[in-house]
Each structure stands twice: as C-alpha cells, then as structure tokens.
Design goal:
globular; 377 residues; single chain
C-alpha cells in the first residue's frame, strides 16, 4: 500500500526545494490518510528497469525552445524560453531531493542544415554536456526530439511520410553516434506527441476519421524507423531502452486499434511513452474557461476518478502484459495560487502511478504565472 499523506509530504519538499521555498513546505496541510493498493507487477527485466526511474523531472522550456529565429547565436535557444542557463548544481539538487531521472526535451530542427539535416556541432555538444551533468550524478536521462512536429521535418501523414522517414534517418544516426558508448542510464525517445498539427484532429484523434487511421499507420512506420536506426548504430545502442509514443503520446493513441509497438532485435527493450494532464479540467484547462477547476482533494472520489481510470487502463493493457510504460509528462498549471491543491494532485497522481508500476515525470516549464504555465512548480 502507498500512503498519499506521506507521498504529499515528499512532493511538497521536492517541489518547494526546486523552486527555493523550502520553509513553506512544512506549512502545507496534508490530505486524509488514503492508501493506494499496489498492483502485482510481472517479473521482467524491463519492468524492473523502469521501476528504477522512480520520480522523474522535465528540463522544460530549455533545449526544446523553438521559433526563435531572431537569435544570432543558436546556443541562445537554451535560455530563450526559460531565461537561465542549465548548470551542474541543478542536477545535484534534483538528486538530493530524490529524483532518479531527468527528461531532456530537445528541438533539433532549429539546429540542422543541408539535405542531410546535419546537426550544429556546438548545439549537439551542449546537449551532450548537460546530459552528462545528470549522468555523472547517477541520474537516468531521457533524450528526445521535441518540437520537430512540422511538415518540413516530422509529420504523421502519408503525404509527408517519406520526408519524415528521411528526417529520422538523418537525425537519429547522429544522436546515436554521439551517445553510442553511454550506458543504459540514457534512454532515447523517438518522437514527442506525434499528431496532425494544425488540424481539428491535433488533440482529438477521432477514431472514425480515416485521417486518424492514416496518422496511426505513419506513426507505426516512424517508430519502427527510429528503432531500426538506433539499433544499427551498434555499441550501447544495440540494446538501449527506447521509448515510442502512440498518437499524441495520449492514452487514446496507445489504445488505438491500429497502433502497434515496433519490432525489435532485442527482447523487452521498448517502452511505451504516454503523457497525461489528467483530469484536464483541473490540470490544464485555461483558468478563464468556465469548466476550469482549481481545487483537488485526494479524499474525494470524483477528483481521483480520472486518475484511477488512467492508471488502471495502462496497467491492464500494458503493465500486466509485461510492457513497460513511462508517463513522460504530467502536471497542473497554476490557478489562483492553488499550490496546495496542485501538491495534493501531484502526490496522488504519483502514488497511483507508482502503485501500477509506472514511473512518471513532472513537467516543469520554468513558468510561474497562470497564463501559459503548465508547471506544478
């Protein structure tokens, strides 16, 4: 059994620790004792590996910055959205606070040139340096391609499939070579939230729409190309754990009847990538929207229901079948200064995921205002 009161206390310390407000953590009230029953987890090397990821954190709004073409120096993208450079001390703090893993979202399309999509050497070196900060401290690192979802680079429809396969076939060999000798503390994630950007299906993949079926088929092909490309590079990449998403990295995308995990030359090294800002009305809906909610009570059945459904569905469809899942993003935006509610939410979400054998990564985009902020910090 996992105690939510204890989890909330831990999360309060973690969240306040990262943002520099440790003194306030002791002032937080805690929910009634709620026990989350641990589900039996199948015995497998892959599920044992993902359990070691424990609590994870996203270095958001940093290397994933995009559309900053006015910057004279490409390296300035690192600070364009968050306003600060990433220092080794950050990872000392994360390790000290109990995080075991860091996800480093990176947009590469801003830093490639030529027909072969050659990555800028300085940009790649800087990403390697920051990933090294985490790896040197014993943290696991997930490295991905983030805001590259664009018809000019990656786009999951038949019209752009050939060019998208080419993009994967050019970018991922360079990343695979750069990290070829890094041990299994490094995980590659092929794509971030592949979807039909700019269409009415972007965030709702209507299963009755043929465009959805086409997108899912293309995502399967892109995931397969990613796996094959990384494996062909040899070294540690021959057996590295790899993460792949369904449509939008959503639960519905993972459950789509047309979605399938890629074939692999190594057994049990594919991890399903899922993102979940659930329940949406509390976690992500605009505070100005009449349907938005700013309260969360872990003792309330209604507040817990969507989280429980998410975790139970992932457990039954994947974990119970021995397929590892990582919740690469979750969190709740600031609404009316509802820090206590967000901490309770984060505690319950984390406890429910842990009980089902699913590690989850807090999304932190270094934003603290209500408008545009999706961070729990």
């Amino acid at each position: 059994m996992i105690n939510v009161r204890k989890m909330m206390t831990i999360l309060a310390v973690l969240l306040f620790g990262v943002t520099g407000g440790m003194a306030q953590a002791s002032e937080m009230s805690t929910p009634a004792d709620i026990q989350v029953r641990r589900q039996p987890i199948p015995t497998s090397e892959a599920l044992a590996f993902t359990s070691g990821l424990k609590a994870g954190w996203n270095l958001g709004n940093t290397f994933d910055a995009a559309n900053c073409d006015w910057l004279a120096d490409p390296l300035l993208y690192e600070t364009a959205w968050c306003g600060s450079i990433t220092r080794p001390e950050l990872f000392d703090l994360l390790a000290e606070l109990g995080f075991a893993a860091v996800r480093i979202p990176v947009s590469w399309h801003n830093h490639v040139s030529g027909a072969e999509f050659t990555i800028d050497e300085q940009w790649l070196a800087r990403v390697q340096e920051v990933a090294g900060y985490a790896l040197e401290r014993g943290l696991y690192v997930i490295l991905n391609t983030h805001h590259d979802m664009d018809p000019a680079f990656l786009y999951p429809d038949q019209e752009h499939l050939e060019s998208s396969l080419r993009y994967i076939g050019c970018v991922w060999p360079q990343l695979a070579e750069a990290f070829r000798d890094t041990d299994e503390h490094l995980i590659f994630e092929g794509m971030n939230e592949p979807r039909l950007v700019g269409t009415e299906l972007e965030w709702y993949a209507n299963p009755k729409d043929e465009r959805t079926a086409e997108a899912v088929r293309c995502i399967n092909a892109l995931n397969q190309a990613f796996v094959d490309t990384v494996r062909a590079s040899g070294g540690q990449n021959a057996s590295r754990y790899l993460m792949v998403p369904g449509y939008g990295a959503s639960l519905d995308g993972a459950l789509n009847s047309g979605f399938s995990l890629p074939a692999d030359s190594v057994e049990g090294r594919i991890i399903l990538s899922v993102h979940a800002y659930t329940p949406y009305d509390f976690a992500l809906r605009d505070p100005a929207d009449p349907q938005s909610r700013d309260a969360f009570d872990a003792a309330n059945d209604r507040d817990r229901a969507e989280i429980d459904c998410l975790m139970n569905t992932l457990y039954r469809n994947f974990i119970q079948k021995g397929i590892p899942v990582v919740l690469g993003e979750y969190g709740a935006r600031n609404k009316n200064g509802n820090l206590e509610a967000r901490t309770a939410y984060t505690a319950y979400f984390t406890a429910a995921a842990t009980a089902c054998g699913i590690p989850c990564f807090l999304w932190d985009n270094a934003a603290f205002m209500e408008t545009g902020s999706y961070s729990v910090c």
